[in-house]
Amino acid sequence: MKESRFSMLANVALVLVLLICATVVAGAQGEQKIKAKNLPAAVTAAFQKAYPNAKIKGTSKEVENGKTMYEVESVDGKMNRDLLYNEDGTCAEIEETVPVKALPSEVSDALKKNFPKGKVMKSEKLTKGETIQYEMVIKSGKEQHEVVFDTKGTIVKDTKKAPKTKEGKEEKEENEKD
Fold first, then answer.
1. Which residues make Cβ contacts (< 8 Å) with residue 117, sequence separation at least 6?
2. pLDDT by residue (tens digit) across 77-115?
3. Domain assignment of residue 92, yes or no
4. Between 8 and 61, where is the model more confident?
5. Which structural domain range is residue 147 located in?
6. Which of 27, 94, 124, 137 is 20 to 30 Å from the Cα of 111, by its Cα?
7. Same-domain status, 136 and 63
């Protein structure tokens, strides 16, 4: 009787260990910080050619849907820029800070119309292939919004962050517009 309980507990413990190991391995498939010297040569060459004065702040390797991508976080003067590269050095995505006064008039007008009392805390230009969008963090009263506009000023995504609760947690309410 004692042996069967022990055997059952040992089996349960083994299953738990295997589940933990599987979770760790699956997590490793996501983003992994790496050193700049470990970037593929094609990625390093493409970055240096496109942004010769930029300084690398951080690099990472991530696997999404079985495809390996490399992220380069950089600063170029006062501009922060994050780039996502394919292994062959082609740039898949660019995310760069942009001053509010440099936004296209359509985006600026939509911002004033939709958030008349809002204060822009962060403003970025997102370029993915031929698609350009503008992502902003806007504080309006006690609310904070993460909003994505297309180049015509249409809101593509509005994620409203509720004020922090007593436990310090933040709740999100997301609205996507097609």
1. 140, 141
2. 999 999 999 999 999 999 999 999 999 999 999 999 999
3. no
4. 61
5. 98-178
6. 94
7. no
